[in-house]
Amino acid sequence: MFGPVKTSPRFVIFSSYGNDSIALIQWAREQELRDVAVVFSDTKWAAPWWMNRVEQMEWWVESLGNGFWTDRTTSMGFVELARFKKAFPTQQYQWCSYVLKIEPGERWLAENDPDARAVCLTGVRREESQAREDFPRYLARSMNHGGRVMLTPFADSSEADRDAFLERAGVEPLPHRSMECGPCINSNRADIQALTETEIVKLEALETEMNSEFGLTRNGKPRTFFRPHRHMGAVGIREIVTWANSPRGKFKPSHPVEDDAAEDLPPEKDGMVCANGYCAN
Known about the structure:
Layout: E1 11-14, H1 19-30, E2 36-41, H2 50-63, E3 69-73, H3 78-85, H4 95-112, E4 119-121, E5 138-142, E6 148-151, H5 159-169, H6 189-193, H7 197-214, H8 236-244
């Protein structure tokens, strides 16, 4: 993104600049690949500090030479998308990934690789989650990449394997998922515990706006970013933060719910992840 593009990309990496995608960039470097475009999907919902990391990593990519270059996709952004949909995405309906990442990525590919010759690389690891345990190592025509070839070099790699690439890149592994969507509807306890007051206020304001503008849901419930039934009945970001900081199974919501409706998330290391390969750790 800092200079003119001299050639069409031979390889494309859609990078969040989290652990997996940075390791993938280092892998491409060690494989001596040339003309590699590393593209960040700007959701306009990143954690406040994440964009500083993105800029630093973009400078690193540009310094690699051999035709490595960076760019960013554009989209309406998460806030405008929520307003347009009059709702927040859910684990069942994760339209945020398509609108903010996949569609902008397809548009970028059409503009920068009109002949569909580039190979798209993804850093998905099968061990990350149950949703990704069958993720393909290879696709001859990936529909999420405009029918281009997709390779998944780390499909069978362990976290230790990935961290070895990070070490050789001189990058310290992050103890959490990437924060290009901060917070994400799939955030786990640790992610929520780490939210800053600025992030909490940002989300609280959006929840307030959504309820003021569109009222209750068709089920007569408030419009909330995190689903109450997955967090023991916690309603709204303030209660969600209280839930995250409560001992497992001990949270008491302000409005009691029936037992069968009050679930507590399992103590997963990484929580849930988007299954399409665009949301990565």
